[in-house]
Amino acid sequence: MSDKPPAWASAPEVHPGATAQMKLAALCVQSVLLGVFVALVLAMFYLFTRRSTAGPSTGKIPKAERLLLSALVILLVMNTGHWICTVVRAFEAFVFWLDGQHPAAYYGWMTGTIRVAQAAFHSGTVVAADMMVITRLYVIWDYRRSVAVAPGVLSLVALLVSAIGTTYAYGAYNADSPSTLVSLQHWRIAHSVLTIWYGMLVP
């Protein structure tokens, strides 16, 4: 995969200017939401640690709560990685790429190492969140494996396959090869449908 943009990407008329404006607005919203998420994670750590030390136990955090905190750390890493990639792409679009003259064309160019990493972090966030849901579902339903495995784990496997396929499709995308764009769109649709369906299936 090459980070060199295709020749058509330098044409300002290829993509509307609103695309870059929406990406910039999305970065602002994502930054605020990430700050809220970080504050919630820190609050969870504080509350769990305080409760464990105040209780009559040995001062250790229970296993179930340790798993929850570990999952929150994984989500924090994934979300932060995605946000960093978004910030890097914003600097490339508005400052470095073609001297920042055509940010909309840059965002229309869907390849590059940073874009692949961004897709990987996004997919990792979805998969990690669904794994948390399955774990909580398993506990709520009194550790009944049938509830967690079918349909929870089976749906998660399908989601994981679509996440890997989407990330690979971003890496294999070539603006000069229409078939790679078709493949990318198919993987993105599959990943989106499975994400929505999984959210409806495991409330």
From TrEMBL:
Protein name per the record: Uncharacterized protein
Keyword Transmembrane helix part of the UniProt annotation: yes
Keywords: Membrane, Transmembrane, Transmembrane helix
TM region(s), chain numbering: 24-47, 67-91, 119-141, 153-173
Protein source organism: Schizophyllum amplum
